[in-house]
Amino acid sequence: MTAPKVLISDALSPAAVQIFKDRGIEVDFQPALGKDKEKLAEIIGNYDGLAIRSATKVTSAILAKATNLKVIGRAGIGVDNVDIPAATARGVIVMNTPFGNSITTAEHAIAMMFALAREIPAADASTQAGKWEKNRFMGVEITGKVLGIIGCGNIGSIVADRAVGLKMRVIAFDPFLSAERALELGVEKVELDDLLARAEIITLHTPMTPQTRNILSREALAKTRPGVRIINCARGGLVDEEALAELLKSGHVAGAALDVFVEEPATANPLFGLPNVVCTPHLGASTTEAQENVALQVAEQMSDYLLRGAISNAVNFPSITAEEAPRLKPYISLAEKLGSFAGQLTETDIKTIRIVYEGDVAHMKIKALTSAAVAGLLRPALADINIVAAPSVARERGIVIEETTREKTGDHDSLITLEVETENLTRAVAGTIIAGTKPRIVQIKGINVEADLLPRMLYITNHDRPGFIGRIGTLLGENGINIAHMQFGRDFEGGNAIALVGIDQVVGETLLKEINTIPNVVQVKALTF
Ligand SMILES: NC(=O)C1=CN([C@@H]2O[C@H](COP(=O)(O)OP(=O)(O)OC[C@H]3O[C@@H](n4cnc5c(N)ncnc54)[C@H](O)[C@@H]3O)[C@@H](O)[C@H]2O)C=CC1
Ligand SMILES: O=C(O)C(=O)COP(=O)(O)O
């Protein structure tokens, strides 16, 4: 196997370069490349992995050129600079480092709060200019003030903890914050309007999503207390910058501290130059400690994926540990083949996919297996579908996916049964793994039939009558088709029967039609795996 190649296109700590090298991965460290989208598009096709911070915009245009890319690693938290649906559609795993810089970013928010409360940047500039304006700078005390946190996740919770330590009264708006967690943090959970009406300082800590974009809109800002101070160390675009500028000018907002901007790099902005506005150039995560943490972590995670198939902290795929990956691999192949089997037989719209995991396999990462089954199922219709994209593509098409796990009930230590429901029929196929690695079909439509899946196969359904096996063997032989194996099953003597024939050559349309004319044959289909 040739060594995977990774491009680092942002200013990651060089610690990442060393990790990649130590793991045997070729690495190109080009910290300024993220800002040059033409150059990035030109060379991205050479790489299996791309490590970034926030300066690299991974657009669908870049992804379209990323023909070898398998993983994007974000050394940090926010992945809003990556087109996740486009990456998913191409089967590219997108992973971040959800905790490595959270303390540092929370500390920056707290630093911004003090900077605002005591006007430290302006006082510093004035003092160093030799003005000694002791009477100009009258601050406010933090103790006892109401801090309103919008988004109380990892960073918001650390801010809350520090603020409680500073003797502030903390209220939080976060629809996903549980009452227990709020109690544990010592914060009061409130609705947004309540927070706007009560907070003397507001700090934002949500990700950028369609729901949070412009969460501090002109209307929302109008509901805030006169004299409010606003801090944004999350994402530009959460606050309406124009409206905030107007409210600062009118004096309704007493101060704003911003680390992030709608447009970055922010070289011009409606907030620049206004009184008591404190700005930093997206420095929230910029401490030696945090940068070391996220660089090491992202390099380890990307290496684990590229070298061992382990997935952690992916935003578009379930996690798989390095220990699980080799055990899961044959089951991924089985699930994909069962899906493919059903997909090749299904000509009408799929309504529901039901997958039952029984025995040992029920304790594995079934989300990953389901993705593989769905990819196999959809591939006959959508040739380029990949296992990362499959569940979202299925959902877009209105296909319902149901998963069930249960303990072993039959002969097999592990059994996966895939049932596909269309407008007209329901078809089920089940399989297991033999000898640790080999996928085998064990049941079709409730009929037991044990068959390994070869690259080329014939699937025949017929009425169980004498003479069929001889005729099919002769016909295939006469047409130069070599039979590798042939397995049969039936529901009862003289009832419905099925045959799975492993073959070495391609069976053309004419021969398929001829097989169909053998007495008692109901259906014949050439399958590929
Ligand atoms: N300035 C900087 O350098 C940095 C900025 N960030 C930003 O901070 C954001 C938050 O990071 P974490 O706390 O680690 O993320 P997190 O996922 O742990 O927390 C985000 C919280 O926001 C809440 N939330 C989501 N939608 C909401 C809504 N509509 N209204 C209110 N709350 C909502 C979630 O329930 C969650 O609790 C990141 O997404 C990133 O954009 C992160 C690191 C550094
Ligand atoms: O981790 C995040 O979400 C950040 O915003 C940090 O961005 P950066 O890596 O400093 O460009």
Automatic annotation (TrEMBL):
Catalytic reactions of this protein: (2R)-3-phosphoglycerate + NAD(+) = 3-phosphooxypyruvate + NADH + H(+); (R)-2-hydroxyglutarate + NAD(+) = 2-oxoglutarate + NADH + H(+)
Annotated Gene3D superfamilies: 3.30.70.260, D-3-phosphoglycerate dehydrogenase, domain 3, NAD(P)-binding Rossmann-like Domain
Pfam families: 2-Hacid_dh, 2-Hacid_dh_C, ACT, PGDH_inter
Enzyme class name: oxidoreductase
Pathway(s) per entry: Amino-acid biosynthesis; L-serine biosynthesis; L-serine from 3-phospho-D-glycerate: step 1/3
Bilayer-crossing regions: none
Keyword Calcium: no
E.C. numbers: 1.1.1.95
ACT domain: residues covered: 457-529
Gene Ontology biological process: L-serine biosynthetic process
GO MF entry, a single one: NAD binding
Family, as annotated: Belongs to the D-isomer specific 2-hydroxyacid dehydrogenase family.
Physiological role: Catalyzes the reversible oxidation of 3-phospho-D-glycerate to 3-phosphonooxypyruvate, the first step of the phosphorylated L-serine biosynthesis pathway. Also catalyzes the reversible oxidation of 2-hydroxyglutarate to 2-oxoglutarate.
Protein name: D-3-phosphoglycerate dehydrogenase
